[in-house]
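To: structure subgroup
Subject: Chain for Friday's discussion

All,

I'm putting the inputs and outputs inline so they're searchable in the archive.
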Amino acid sequence: MRISPFYLIAALGLSTLGEAKNACSGSCTNPALERCLTAKRVPFKVSCSPDWELYSTTLNRRVPITPAAIVLPNNSKHVSDAVICAANKGFKVQAKSGGHSYGSFGFGGTDGHVMIDLRNLNKTVLSRKTNVAVVGGGTHLGPMATAVHAQGKRAISHGICGGVGIGGHATHGGWGFTSRAWGLTIDHILELQVVLANGTETRVSPNSNPDLFWALRGAADSIGIVTSFSLKTHPAPKEVVNFVYEFEAVLESVDKAVNAFTRLQDFVSNATLVDRRLSLALQTFVKPNPETGSLDKSFVVGGTFMGSLGEYKRSIEPEMLRGLPAPTKSEVQSHDWLESLARLSPDGTLTGGPLYSAYFANSVTVDDPGLDRAALERYFGYILEGPPLPPVALQSNMELWGGADGQINFVPTTGAAFPHRNVFWTAHNLVQAPPDVNATGFPPEAVTYLSGLRNAILDGLEVNSAAYPNLVDTTLTRQEAHQLYYGEEVLRRLRRIKAAYDPRNVFENPQSIVA
């Protein structure tokens, strides 16, 4: 049994995409754009290309998008030329690194954008002198982790899904099970190579273009296209314990669920028992059972401990499980670093193939010291006694950002355009349709249901809350998203930088910054 994936409860994998073919002869729908790209020898696809669907299919089938063209750059010059062509011909631009945006923002979020697919910018090179990894903007997390380990037994903090692209993940946070020990992926960024809206290529760092460096770490989709990351690394742990415990009895009543959650929240807050090496998420699953006609419910505690199995069994497990009912199922295994990452990934590998399904998600960040009993009663009351679940599977994850000795919140809020630095839990809520359902078949009441769950968490919450920009909620307006992702002070500065570097609003999606 693996720890359940944090998005996509069930998914279909399609075959690996083939090599890019030449665009179709003659123009398709945008002749001026195509002539410009062709003249600059930029590889691209358009809707009449024979393999168009291999590149234009969104991972979230609920949000299909049709780009005006898909650019497949082999170097940063291709990116620069494509941005110039698109801007001069009046097209908006978005970059796709892995394509996992819940709103399909890498495809533009709405039809008609020029999508710059960075899949060919996928090399990872580790300096043995500085232990800094230079990572292409289209690199996926699994291959990146494999490369830095192979080249120097190093590691980078990142999420669990091997197919997620570094581009959006790192520039909008980047939570994973190593984040309590090492910080978010965004905290590992030392330098960036970026293409701006006028096609200029530049490098940014704390000492070179510091305003851009600040803005790109939190709002890169609005400011520029990162073609290369310079990331700090850590010595890879020699041993990591992956654990998962499933409890059916916890969800027998609201009171039992609240008691279990409160017990675990107290545990992770106890500095005499817990340090930064432990990370976990508390996951609630509810899904229809076609055989019984009822709902299957389970509560799962899953995570990692960067230490020995002996220490975990002796010092962590007994205290974590104390006061909880006996788990229905459990698995505790010791792995080396790469084995641990592979076991956490949805497909059990680090290759990270595409996973397609129709789903909707939202998020709530809950500041320190976490959720009080009244908030937990509303949360579990909605799930267990609230409105009926539509014909979808629900997964609600409380992902631990805070707790004893956690390192995420030690970074100053002023250091980047990512202001979430007092978070204890991030609620990551998702509803997913059966694998054969597409956009037209996705039940709209499922969106309403999940929005209700978000409101149940927020209703009467006594600590500050916001939303996590890597978990895009497509129901939010641009203004709502800005308030939740950034807040007024950060937003004012972002607007000034947007006006200076992208006054024509070339880089645009439904929730991007507007000057």
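Points worth raising on Friday:
Residues 254-268 form the longest helix (15 residues).
The mean pLDDT is 94.

D.
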